[in-house]
Amino acid sequence: MKLTIEDVRSRFIKHFDGQTGSVYTAPGRINLIGEHTDYNNGYVFPGAVEQGMIAEIKPNGTRNVDAYSIDLKDRVQFSLDDEKGPNATWARYIYGVCREMMALGVPVEGFNTAFAGDVPLGAGMSSSAALESTYAFAINDLFGENKIERMELALVGQRTEHKYIGVNCGIMDQAISCLGKAGHLMRMDCRSGEIEYFPWHPKGYQLVLVNSCVKHELKGSPYNERRLQCEHVAEVIAKKHPEVESLRDATMEMLDEVKNEITGAEYKRARYVIGEVVRVLAVCEALEIDDYEKVGQMMYDTHYGLSKEYEVSCEELDFLNDVAKECGVTGSRIMGGGFGGCTINLVADELAPNFKKVVVEKFEEKYGKKPIVIDVVIGDGARKLC
Asked: Where in this chain does the record put each GHMP kinase C-terminal domain (predicted)?
């Protein structure tokens, strides 16, 4: 069920003596293509979704924030001037955003707030970025005398993750949550920060997420390992081609030149990244001429690369990808870091009902649990609702 203003307002009124404030929202996201490219200075291609966070906020005339998480049924109070902040992780997101906005010179005052979200957890749709973006936008609107640009608000969210949560994330999730546009996907150059919007009006097609609801526990740090592998290959290539600063600058020919100087695993990782940079640009070109069959093929190619070359898939995600092929789905791939989570699927309208039915039945038959099917509508970024 879609989260509404009334869902949040009713709880705000209950917990804050019948008062009402201003209501803000920011979305979660999908990423159509461009996975594991961000830390290789490549491109990502996300879109904001209708699901997100909604928060009601009212200044309270103090230096304290009184926050209520509707979903967790938990209430936390903290002072804006406290150097340590609250212990509860969810409250630290709000605290971190407040502190980072204060660092930018925004005269943040105390407020009461209640919030809830309908971003599915574990689906790689970035509920944390939606939370950060909601409060960054709201604080800017309520207290900012000189309004801060949206990209800087996204950076506030990223710094919150780094400094107050301990997650060394990239900028994609916060950027699309702040800068998303309904009916458009956003290509972001992870080196320069440049963004460009591309129309998303797939007549005859729809986007469907299938959440496997599994997440495999991993030994070691596979993401860090892959990042180091990519950086090492770029360094080896740069000895012959000094213009190569990262794998984003490399070509398959350059990679083949150094094949005997790197490990087999490194070769596969680099092959995937170089191919993915090309695929993102190909998808952008295809969208400009409404070639959704090309978009779909690139998605399948990405899944193959993530599964066989980057090796971040798992049995369940590969199974979902196979079912998509069997059902005639135009494009399907892992979305997110991998090892669990969901697939994103580009499905022709006439095939969608059967695909949704079959994928649930087959997955439950094989794994004993139902996946969650989520219809995707591309929406707007952070905004005030009332």
From this structure: 285-351
Integer CA distances (angstroms), 182 to 150, 199, 293, 297, in order: 16, 9, 22, 24
> What is the CATH code for 5-201?
3.30.230.10
49 touches 25 (CB < 8 A): no
- How large a percentage of the chain has pLDDT more than 90? 87
Q: Return the pLDDT at 120.
A: 77
**Residue with token string 């994103």:** 344
Find out whether 280 and 75 touch, Cβ atoms under 8 Å. Answer: no
Q: Which residues contact 116 (CB under 8 A, 6 or more apart)?
A: 3, 7, 8, 11, 53, 54, 69, 70, 71
Given the residues 173, 256, 322, 375, the one annotated as active site: 173
Of 207-221, 266-280, 286-300, where does mean pLDDT reach its minimum? 207-221
CB-based contacts of 14, cutoff 8 Å, min separation 6: none
pLDDT at 125: 85
Q: What pLDDT shows up at residue 209?
A: 95
- Say whether 318 is catalytic: no
Find the length of the chain.
386
Q: What residues form DSSP beta bridges with 79?
A: 64
Enclosing H/E stretch for 9: helix 5-15
Q: Per the structure block, which two tokens stand in for 309?
A: 């070359």
